[in-house]
Design brief:
With 329 residues, the protein is an alpha/beta fold. Helix content is 36%, strand content 15%. Helix 3 links the parallel strand 1 and strand 2.
Length: 329
Amino acid sequence: THTRDVVEYIIKKGNETPVDVHPIGCVTKDRAGKSIAEMGDMKDGGAVAFSDDGDPVYDSQVMRVALEYSSMLGMPIINHEEDLELSRPGHMNEGRVSTRLGLDGTPSIAEETMIARDILLAEYTGGHIHVAHISTKGAVDLVREGKKKGINVTTEVCAHHFDLTDEEIEKQKFNTNFKMHPPLRTQEDVDAMIEGLVDGTIDVICTDHAPHAIEEKEVEFIYAPNGIIGLETAWSISNMRLFKTKKLNLQQLVEKLSYNPRKILNLEVPALEEGAQANLTFFNTDEEWTFDQKNVRSKSKNSPYLNKKLTGRAVGIFNRGELVINELR
């Protein structure tokens, strides 16, 4: 949304649920990339950050102004980092696998050139750039160097980007549930994501939850929309790939999933102490389960983890005095 009214409406509806809902306002009006939205007004209404979601803020001058507002308002700009002239008409990562499969690929530089621009603009303006769903080794290197220089840059990675590679598209015979944006990259990129999480370059583990109807995905690979549902599997994948392999301890994993996102969005971190209002998620690191049709809570089923055995599961939450248990367990 680019209006305060909608921000306030989302907060009102969110307060009717047991989970906290924090709206993110648009950077530009109608996400058109032309003129800056009413950022100050949306902040007053309760927005916690600004983003044009899957549309990159393409115009450098517009991004400069947005980051100047970011500096004044003390709020992050979250950008989908993609140079569209370099990425189109890609359907997967550009590399050996795309060549073998005869598919147009999206090169890593399509992500990296935009990240480099935004880090430089953040340095120039003093604004806070949050790089959305990072996916390439070069991108991690850019963020790492930006942080070393003291630039206000943070970033996140989706669970599937530190778990799966572009080889899966060939192995799974063009299964469209493996098509997302940014695309699955190489093993070198996956290893770089884990390294970035371990050394603190990558602040947050995210889901990039993008539901699609079954019929939308049941088409040829090149015609299928990008995106997967990630909300229900992110904890399990993180547990399996990071905690169980001793890459991160449990406290570090919780920081990536909960504490750091709150810090980036300037949200109060709930205290775990007597007298404080409880805001908790319960999880079991050892529970084994299968992410099959009966266990999917989303209305959509577009997941590369469908029918896969996973370890670690969210048990329930306690928030606003209400205990909600996952009854599918």
